[in-house]
Specification:
Order of helices and strands: HEEEEEEE
Number of helices: 1
Strand order of the largest sheet: 1-2-3-4
Strand content: 35-45%
Shape: extended
Largest sheet: 4 strands, antiparallel
Structural class: mainly beta
Length: 116
């Protein structure tokens, strides 16, 4: 697959050739790359919707229950966290400070409100 670098301003021909030579892109992106299942059977689907608040960029995730019914939308700052570990209704993340590189492990309780 060839990458179109025409939209990048100021890229030299040697840099363009280096990118063309070394960059390998899959021809197909697996849809499951944007999904994760938690330990309660909920499916978290990254929507690629983004919004900026207080200088941070947030990405939306749609959550579906184990029956495939839409439950909720949550916004997470995925630039700072490594999403992926759920245990007993809690989400564990590893956050990295951009300036210091210091890593913090956090635990969040995930509560999805029941619908009437």
């Amino acid at each position: 697959m060839r990458i179109n670098l025409d939209g990048i301003r100021g890229i030299s021909e040697s840099d363009r050739a280096l990118v063309d030579k070394n960059l390998v892109m899959p021809s197909v992106k697996n849809i499951t790359d944007s999904m994760i299942a938690d330990d309660l059977g909920n499916l978290w689907v990254e929507t690629h919707e983004e919004k900026e608040e207080q200088g941070k960029m947030f990405t939306a995730f749609d959550i579906f229950n184990e029956d495939g019914v839409y439950e909720a939308k949550v916004w997470l700052d995925v630039s700072q966290i490594s999403l992926g570990l759920f245990k007993n209704g809690k989400m564990y993340t590893r956050e990295t400070d951009k300036e210091t590189g210091y890593r913090v492990y956090r635990r969040y309780k995930v509560i999805l409100n029941e619908r009437n």
